[in-house]
Amino acid sequence: MNQEISTQVRNFSVRLSPTPRGARLARLLATEQLRSWELPLDPAAHIVAELAANAATHGRVPGRDFHLILYVVGTTLRIEVTDTRGDEVPRPQHPAPDAESGRGLVLVDALADKWGVAPGLPPRKTVWAEVRLDRPKPGKPCSGGPCDGGSGRLSQETTW
Fold first, then answer.
1. In this model, does residue 154 exceed pLDDT 70?
2. Most confident region among 55-69, 81-95, 125-139 by mean pLDDT
3. For a Cys staple, 11 with which of 59, 71, 134, 143, CB 3.0–4.6 Å?
4. Alpha carbons 107 and 54: distance in angstroms, whole number
């Protein structure tokens, strides 16, 4: 007997200008898409905000957009931000306590269950993060593993 396995894949994709306005729009559009899918906004909205801000700040090439993709497979939300600066591979930093920036990937690491960087067709790269949608609600006990996000060890999974 041949059974067909059906898994619904929800996806959203948009190209935006690599500017502060484009980064803000990425967060707003992602938030609205998550609402329409009736999914929790946190921590995904924060992750999108950080990855889009990085694409607009560090991945910016005049005249080239960045690409935001959200998709859900099973109980996992995957967030991908692709920019056109493949030569600029993001690395988590430990900035000085009084520094005004430099904590974006530290936040992504803390909020995401997994994240990494994947090379694309030159000159592109994709920074991705995954969030489990079946996380325990705040105030409910966890059953093994981290309950509040990533490992906190700044260990990224890369495919270089």
1. no
2. 55-69
3. 71
4. 12
